[in-house]
Amino acid sequence: MAHLATKLAEANIAYHTKDAPDLTDAEYDAFKRRNTELEALFPHLKRKDSPTDQVGAGPADGFTKVTHAVAMLSLSNVFDDEDVGEFDGRIRKYLGLSADAPLSYTAEPKIDGLSLSLRYEQGQLVQAATRGDGAVGENVTANARTIDDIPHKIADAPDILEVRGEVYMSHSDFEALNARQTDAGDKTFANPRNAAAGSLRQLDSDITRARPLRFFAYAWGALSTPLSDTQIGAIEKLSALGFQTNPLTRLCDSPADMITQYRVIEQKRADLGYDIDGVVYKVNDLALQSRLGFRSTTPRWATAHKFPAELAWTHLEAIDIQVGRTGALSPVARLTPVTVGGVVVSNATLHNEDYIAGRDSKGAEIRGGKDIRVGDWVQVYRAGDVIPKVADVALAKRPSDAVPFTMAEVCPECGSAAIREPGDAVRRCTGGLICPAQAVEKLKHFVSRSAFDIDGLGAKQVEQFHTDGWIKEPADIFTLRARYGVGLQQLKNREGWGEKSATNLFDAIDERRKIPLHRVIFALGIRNVGEAAANLLALHYQSWAAFSKAMRDAAPGNAAWDDLISIDGVGAVMAQSLATTFQQDAEWASIERLIAELEIEDAVRPDTSHSPVAGKTVVFTGTLEKMSRAEAKARAEALGAKVSGSVSAKTDLLVAGPGAGSKAKKAIELGIEILDEDGWLALIGSS
What we know:
Layout: H1 2-17, H2 25-41, E1 65-67, E2 76-78, H3 81-95, E3 105-111, E4 114-121, E5 124-130, E6 136-138, H4 141-144, E7 160-168, H5 171-183, H6 192-200, H7 205-209, E8 214-223, H8 231-240, E9 250-252, H9 255-268, E10 276-283, H10 286-292, E11 302-306, E12 311-323, E13 329-340, E14 343-349, H11 353-357, E15 377-381, E16 389-393, E17 418-419, E18 428-429, H12 436-446, H13 459-467, H14 474-477, H15 480-484, H16 499-511, E19 514-516, H17 517-523, H18 531-541, H19 544-553, H20 559-565, H21 572-583, H22 585-595, E20 599-601, E21 617-621, H23 629-638, E22 642-644, E23 653-656, H24 662-670, E24 673-675, H25 677-683
Parallel strand pairs: 2-11, 19-20, 21-22, 21-23, 23-24
Antiparallel strand pairs: 1-6, 3-9, 3-10, 4-5, 4-7, 7-8, 10-11, 12-13, 12-15, 13-14, 15-16, 17-18
Helix pairs in contact: 1-2, 3-9, 12-13, 17-18, 19-21
């Protein structure tokens, strides 16, 4: 995930800021989807600089900056028909709609160009801005005025109207432009998207004027008056105001209709005359869009159905086992190199022993129950994965001497027993601190960006220092200056180091001695405790002393344990991981040595006094009739409330719908205030 964060950040700058992408669209989607899948599987490992929280890239030098009145967000992606059904299912679940309730969507081509926002005041074009990082873009007003598809003045427009769409270049115009560039001895463009982006973002608007740019309108930002009460109606209104809108936009009444329109657009793709890379689906009802709202960087009410990646067959040469930070033994397929989606692939993830055996985590068949063996011919795909997966096995080509795979029962790194606990999908090394693979991976995690983030001390340096015996545990990092700042073995004398770089590293380490509580908790690398969980724990306990004492004391059934699992987002599995770590003598001794080197800043809860439920712990139970549980939770948290999954003495309010059971009974016993759904909506000023 650290690799993905770096790779995608670099790709965003190359694509959005420099207009010189170093990844293909399929490659970028593969990295992005792999990161999304990892975060879905391991939400506790989500990074502070997660690619899912990033939109585009910051504005380039040379342009004045524009802060968008309404953020320009990116879209989530789906890649197959099943994903489309799941998208519809998530929408219905969030809104509390039944499977047969009417719900329509629009489907439109996803233009492969550069996003642009046009601001009109009293019908006059006053500003044009690129998306930038979603919050701040580049002022390209002079350049936008040179595009024929963008009107300078529109009649009967709202007083304030921000029209959003895509600047693109047709295939024929692209070919003609490259021919002119060649004739003039200038650099040619790799594809129409690069040409469009590079043309719009010229500092000299005369250059932009000479480039054949076009514009499709498909959305809006700030409005003084609504365009319509539906997405399709708003698009029709934009067309009536004089903007080019895509003629392939259609209204769909079901996922099946959406997929049908996807197929229609896919079949017409080669004949459109401009580049598209998928189809965008949006909930048609704008009131429902408003209810659905947004995640950090994407709307809940829209998604992009990307065109499929390629498949390829190759030979499985070996299955290797890698040991991760938590001791997990992960099998990896070593393949005869093959090109898939424009990228040479030599490895594929095999997840765990069940996956290799042709079963999912619940025992159901995958790949038709075909197992995977060394020597097999396998079909691999990169549909959103940076490390490809195995899609199929050619049993007819299986060697006669191929044997079923047997998972190692000892750690290949330290020889300790590798056990699979009930309910766990993977085997794990029991070596703990004595396992070099776990030790070095934990140290890499400790210095990662969302943890201590020590300038000059990255994964490469940690690995080398660990190999040389300079760093065995996190506390050793903070004694480096004392041990290797002077004497015969000075850091400055190592290859690749000098006096200045060594001093800079020591200073950077000292700067991290004072550090916020949530970073310390995350940096410890406790299994099941990721960045989000570390924040929750820090806000709950607020100080290291309170947190560490609670973890040392916690045991199923006692007060410290009950308090721990009462935190929304903390369950018994995470609680057990925390307690196990803090209650093992060796682990605790290592933590104490680290803490002795630090000044840990207490966590401060934000001021949420503006809300009638700010700072209160709220529990929802029973069936809510006017909104889904997910929507209720989102509203409560937006008002500063803490939503818990269980009733305890710390609960301030129970919202009980029909069918409330044991939670309501316990609330009565504890004297906790209980409201029905109408009472809750009245309290928060909603209806």
